[in-house]
Amino acid sequence: MRLWFGKWTSIAKESANRAAIFAKFLCLLHVTNTYIFSPILVYGPSMLPTLNLTGDVVLSEYISHRLGKVGPGDVVLIQSPENPRKIITKRVVAMEGEVVSFLVDPSRSDRSRTVVVPKGHVWIQGDNIYASNDSRNFGPIPYGLIQGKVCCRVWPVDCFGSL
Amino acid sequence: MVYGSSMMPTLNLVGDVVLSEYISHRLGKVSPGDVVLIQSPENPKKTLTKRIVAMEDETVSFSVDPSDGDRSRTVVVPKGHVWIQGDNSYASHDSRHFGPIPYGLIQGKVRCRVWPLACAGSL
Predict the structure, then answer these.
(1) Structural domain includes residue A106
(2) What is the pTM of this model?
(3) ipTM > 0.85 (yes/no)
């Protein structure tokens, strides 16, 4: 009877240890995914040909924008100013204080407009200007809406590498 | 710890410690009348405390410069944005100056004040 009880406690201890290790691993994974970097599935036509229509998994990191190290040419994840639950992927074209010249509606006319980006804002555009809802439609967005910077693509494997 | 003159008399000039929670705005449970913490649209490293006056698709009438005349303007808040104003409309730099802000800039909702103890309680 005593032997059987002893075996039970050792099994219970071992499973508690393993559960603790698993819980620690999950915590580390969550912290990494939220605050450091994580893979994100992005899809849609607005960043063709850089990103595919049907979806790519990209690695995005969440440290650069907090340090202010986001500049023109970076592909960033931003919280949409029109729908706060939606995250969109676009390229930063200009930072605050810079002047942007853009085509208002490239598929229909050649009209272009010039805008100065106000303080604390950035101007974003999709690479596919014919099919992108970006700063040309909703104006410059506050820097605070930037959620992360995309560093490289991890899937599909044959397009692996930086963007 | 929040300080400044833009939310007087609700919050003190020299500083109060308030309790703010970070769940409501993710669930969309933020509404007019709430005091919220927002990331400033003019300086992303600064956090401001203001009150929400109107949500998206509502109309806002405000006096442009209360210390300098009675002129007032009416604006419709666009989709995905909110209109914020400080309680002290004479000394507050808010949506009357920089326009409606995207909902995504809201960082948290202020629930109650915990310091100084004499004024502890909900705002």
Answers:
(1) yes
(2) 0.83
(3) no
